[in-house]
């Protein structure tokens, strides 16, 4: 069974200084995965379970310019997937999104986040258990931080009314993002019948009205 406690600095694996080898382009968008963010665009980062299915939730949204899966929120530099799975890096499986705020708002992305996983499960998501499956919002500025916290406050009573426990989502300033291995990038576009372990609670998020 994978650990459900984040490692301490002395427990964490050492990692490596070299970044992960990566394909040049996004499999669907045909843009460089390391492309600089276009002027006027913004970034968002979410953890909500197995990143294969999470990435698919976002790449089809109008206004999303680029997606990438990776590891964030841990202690080990440039971890491998196998290392993350030990629970000894502290990383979460995340999706980083580059988007055009003129076409899709950060509030829209937050609604997708809340409604497409169960944010009350702690260090797991469905049958996937471990620190890498925790719910997380990683913010790039004070405005995103405020919006994320407000959305959590708005959604919590809805979940409670439906019989769910307290929200366990961590909301933190965006940490370092380490690209996952190439085969993880856009995995469900390359393997349409592949595993997708995420699923929502069926409880709608009211943030369009509350924010």
UniProtKB/TrEMBL annotation:
Gene responsible for this protein: msrA
Gene Ontology MF terms in the entry: L-methionine:thioredoxin-disulfide S-oxidoreductase activity; peptide-methionine (S)-S-oxide reductase activity
SUPFAM superfamilies listed in its UniProt record: Peptide methionine sulfoxide reductase
Family: Belongs to the MsrA Met sulfoxide reductase family.
Record-listed E.C. numbers: 1.8.4.11
Top EC category: oxidoreductase
UniProt-listed HAMAP family: MsrA
Active site, per annotation: 50
Key words, A-Z: Oxidoreductase
GO biological process, one term: cellular response to oxidative stress
Catalytic activity: [thioredoxin]-disulfide + L-methionine + H2O = L-methionine (S)-S-oxide + [thioredoxin]-dithiol; L-methionyl-[protein] + [thioredoxin]-disulfide + H2O = L-methionyl-(S)-S-oxide-[protein] + [thioredoxin]-dithiol
Taxonomic lineage of the native organism: Bacteria, Pseudomonadati, Pseudomonadota, Alphaproteobacteria, Rhodobacterales
Protein's job: Has an important function as a repair enzyme for proteins that have been inactivated by oxidation. Catalyzes the reversible oxidation-reduction of methionine sulfoxide in proteins to methionine.
Protein name stated in the entry: Peptide methionine sulfoxide reductase MsrA
Species of origin: Rhodobacter xanthinilyticus
Annotated Gene Ontology cellular component terms: cytoplasm
Domain annotation Peptide methionine sulphoxide reductase MsrA: ranges: 43-196
InterPro entries, per database record: Met_Sox_Rdtase_MsrA_dom, Met_Sox_Rdtase_MsrA_sf, MsrA_MetSO_reductase
Record-linked Pfam families: PMSR
């Amino acid at each position: 069974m994978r650990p459900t406690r984040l490692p301490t600095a002395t427990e964490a694996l050492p990692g490596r200084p070299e970044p992960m080898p990566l394909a040049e382009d996004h499999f669907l968008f045909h843009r460089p995965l390391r492309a600089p963010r276009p002027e006027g665009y913004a970034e968002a980062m979410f953890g909500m379970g197995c990143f294969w299915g999470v990435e698919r939730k976002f790449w089809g949204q109008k206004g999303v310019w680029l997606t990438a899966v990776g590891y964030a929120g841990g202690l080990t530099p440039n971890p491998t997937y196998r290392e993350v799975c030990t629970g000894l890096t502290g990383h979460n499986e995340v999706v980083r999104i580059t988007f055009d705020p003129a076409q899709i708002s950060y509030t829209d992305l937050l609604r997708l986040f809340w409604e497409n996983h169960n944010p009350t499960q702690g260090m797991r998501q469905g049958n996937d258990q471990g620190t890498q499956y925790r719910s997380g919002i990683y913010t790039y500025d004070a405005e995103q931080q405020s919006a994320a916290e407000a959305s959590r406050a708005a959604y919590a009573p809805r979940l409670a009314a439906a019989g769910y426990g307290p929200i366990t989502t961590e909301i933190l300033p965006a940490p370092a993002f380490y690209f996952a291995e190439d085969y993880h990038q856009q995995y469900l576009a390359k393997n349409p019948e592949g595993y997708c372990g995420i699923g929502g609670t069926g409880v709608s998020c009211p943030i369009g009205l509350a924010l």
